[in-house]
Automatic annotation (TrEMBL):
Gene that this polypeptide is encoded by: cobK_2
Entry keywords, A to Z: Cobalamin biosynthesis, Oxidoreductase
Biological classification of the source: Bacteria, Pseudomonadati, Pseudomonadota, Alphaproteobacteria, Rhodobacterales
Protein name: Cobalt-precorrin-6A/precorrin-6x reductase
Species for this entry: Roseobacter cerasinus
PANTHER family assigned to the protein according to its UniProt record, in alphabetical order: COBALT-PRECORRIN-6A REDUCTASE
PROSITE patterns listed in its UniProt record: COBK_CBIJ
Keyword presence, Oxidoreductase: yes
Keyword Aminoacyl-tRNA synthetase: no
Segments forming a coiled coil: none
Biological pathway: Cofactor biosynthesis; adenosylcobalamin biosynthesis
GO molecular function, one term: precorrin-6A reductase activity
Short name of one Pfam family: CbiJ
GO BP of this protein: cobalamin biosynthetic process
């Protein structure tokens, strides 16, 4: 199950081991680069549809490297594996930790963070198009939404504006962007990892507050590791 950057490395590494690998990706924009294995793109309409697809593919082991906030995917696939006695592993990198120099405002949801934005503020977010409905109650002036793939779709709200760019993004580049757009606040989800850390370092340097959306809890029955190397070791020791 893909959606996080780790899925690319896992798929390539497992194929080099001679494993038959198939990737399930919830949306095309979740791919950071082309996969080296066959890919199914799109959400499953139901848990039963996911189970049927897995059975048709002859799946015996699932390594779940979906996005940290794709909780429905992880919940459904882990339950399917539990019922059908399939091997399951969740790969979930550690979350970011706040330093003394950071101004983080903890939130459980994007909707609440959007509602709490004071009038007149100019906000930057990278939570993606799929989350835009959660900004319906946004009370600021402008919401700049990062997009890493070009498209011509209009934003659903007058206050929302797309900002296109190609990763990786450097700290200096983020500082320049936030200054140019006169950003006063960020809204981010705590996905962890170094790839997206540059915007937080830029916010720290500029003294900007960050509304940080906390991760959902991982169910207790799920076997979890933090890294690709740990996942590959788990698979090798089957």
């Amino acid at each position: 199950m893909a959606g996080a950057r780790e899925a690319h490395t896992l798929a390539a590494s497992l194929r080099r081991r001679g494993r038959k690998v198939i990737v399930s990706l919830p949306a095309a924009e979740r791919a950071f680069e082309p996969f080296t294995a066959p890919v199914r793109i799109g959400p499953f309409p139901s848990k039963e549809a996911m189970a049927d697809w897995m059975a048709a593919q002859g799946v015996r082991t699932v390594i779940d490297a979906s996005h940290a906030f794709d909780v429905e995917i992880s919940r459904d696939v882990s339950l399917i594996c539990k019922v059908q006695d399939l091997r399951y592993l969740r790969v979930l990198r550690p979350p970011w930790r706040q330093s003394r120099q950071d101004i983080w405002l903890p939130y459980r949801s994007i909707a609440k963070a959007a509602q709490d934005v004071p009038a007149g503020e100019r906000v930057f977010t990278n939570t993606g198009r799929a989350t835009l409905n959660e900004y319906r109650g946004f009370r600021g002036d402008v919401l700049f939404v990062r997009q890493t793939q070009l498209h011509d779709e209009a934003a659903p709200f007058a206050f929302a504006h797309y900002v296109f760019g190609t990763p990786p993004f450097s700290q200096g580049g983020e500082e320049s962007l936030f200054t140019e757009l006169n950003i006063s606040r960020l809204i981010c989800r705590n996905v962890g990892g170094p790839a997206s850390m540059s915007k937080l370092l830029a916010a720290r340097r500029l003294g900007l507050p960050v509304a940080m959306i906390e991760r959902p809890q991982t169910p207790a029955w799920i076997t979890r590791v933090d890294s690709v190397n740990e996942a590959l070791a788990w698979e090798a020791n089957a």
